[in-house]
Specification:
alpha+beta, five-stranded mixed β-sheet, about 45% helix, about 15% strand
Length: about 400
């Protein structure tokens, strides 16, 4: 799948990552020390490893463009819309993702989590991604935006498909869901409601730059904003609970530690992310000359282990503060779904520690990962013991 001519594929850098997180951290820190900017002439591409340099690239879209980065095969993504379009379109939806507005939904999230946990507590087992993570996000997307991906398992299937495209391990395949949203848009034109599509159609009447096709593509992007990150965060959290019961019991004793635990999981366990940009013009970064048109690949995962910003970076620290990790990006292109992951993730873990005495791997059903992407967990079965009422 790796190419050495034309546009490189996004997966070309993954083979260098070890399956061992300790080995990854050692490689990141070695690159920060010995080759903080590495040029790959076969791809006309720079890799960036230090926190300071990664932050500069992410915060400077006027120099490092998102629009000419390697193509992901998506019809639209807020993460690759150029600055004017990004600001114009994000303005229509940003209010929904303001942390305070997401926090206001916490009581509804709590009731939803409890309803999904009830059968798991009764059965003593749960496939936590398929029976908890994605069903919650599917309902949240429906509640926040009035968007529906109909059919059993289709929401999760599309979320996995989109994330696979983002990281370069799946080919484009989105016509079915685009058609589904186009049908919903036609329905909203006939019968407007209190939902995102209806609001966008009303705005379209004021500004024809907001085409119907763009509305469909925006809804497609928003319907999966935060889905995969939330599912992965939960998978990594539950894995830690099973491997380190002391960590889980610490959260049970002191649930106030959950927000910090989430941030440290995002910093430490998302250790395989890179983000792509293209230099708009000749520039200097970290003392190296970067030419117009060259790819610039930043490693937020490496920056998250930069000792200059994270003392004892190789340690998983439940009480780490501050924790300015770059897992969701930085600057104007920071992931829209981050507040949802933080608030919904907190609510889920709060209800878990309140209702579950202990969590163990199900020995009969080992965890499964996406093909070609070991870190993307698609199935994690656990055994749970209900807490005393």
């Amino acid at each position: 799948m790796t190419e050495t001519s034309g546009k490189p594929t996004r997966d070309l850098l993954f083979p260098e990552l070890s399956d061992s997180i300790d080995a990854r951290i050692a490689w990141f820190q070695r690159m920060q020390r010995d080759e903080p900017l590495r040029f790959r002439p076969e791809y006309d591409l720079w890799e960036v490893f230090r926190y300071e340099d990664v932050t500069r690239v992410l915060k400077d879209p006027t120099t490092f463009s998102v629009t000419n980065k390697t193509h992901m095969g998506l019809p639209f993504s807020f993460g690759r819309a150029d600055i004017p379009e990004h600001r114009f379109l994000r303005g229509f939806v940003a209010q929904a993702f303001v942390p305070g507005n997401v926090e206001n939904l916490a009581p509804r999230f709590t009731a939803l989590v409890d309803s999904l946990l009830a059968p798991a507590l009764a059965a003593g087992r749960m496939e936590m991604i398929g029976e908890l993570g994605f069903p919650i996000m599917e309902q949240v997307v429906a509640d926040m935006f009035g968007l529906r991906i109909t059919g059993a398992g289709r929401f999760r299937q599309w979320s996995d498909q989109m994330f696979g495209q983002l990281v370069g391990v799946r080919s484009p395949d989105h016509d079915d869901v685009v058609g589904m949203f186009a049908e919903q848009l036609a329905e909203r034109k006939r019968h407007p409601g209190d939902d995102l599509m209806s609001a966008l159609l009303a705005e379209r009447g004021k500004d024809d730059r907001l085409s119907e096709e763009k509305i469909v593509h925006m809804c497609l992007d928003l319907s999966t904003a935060g889905n995969a990150p939330l599912a992965l965060m939960l998978a990594y959290a539950f894995t830690r609970f099973c491997l380190d019961p002391g960590f889980y019991q610490a959260l049970r004793r002191e649930p106030a530690l959950i927000p910090a635990a989430i941030e440290e999981i995002l910093r430490f366990d998302f250790s395989w992310f890179n983000l792509w940009r293209t230099a708009r013009h000749d520039t200097v970064l970290g003392g190296r000359e970067i030419k117009e048109g060259q790819y610039v690949v930043v490693w937020p995962s490496s920056a998250n282990f930069d000792e200059s910003r994270f003392p004892r970076a190789t340690e998983f620290d439940l009480t780490r503060s501050p924790n300015p990790h770059l897992t969701f990006g930085q600057g104007m292109y920071i992931c829209l779904g981050l507040p949802v992951v933080r608030v919904l993730g907190r609510v889920i873990l709060e209800r878990i520690v309140a209702t579950v005495a202990d969590i163990r791997f199900d020995p009969a059903k080992p965890a499964e990962s996406m093909a070609l992407m070991k870190d993307y967990v698609v199935s994690l079965d656990v055994l749970v013991t209900p807490a005393d009422s």
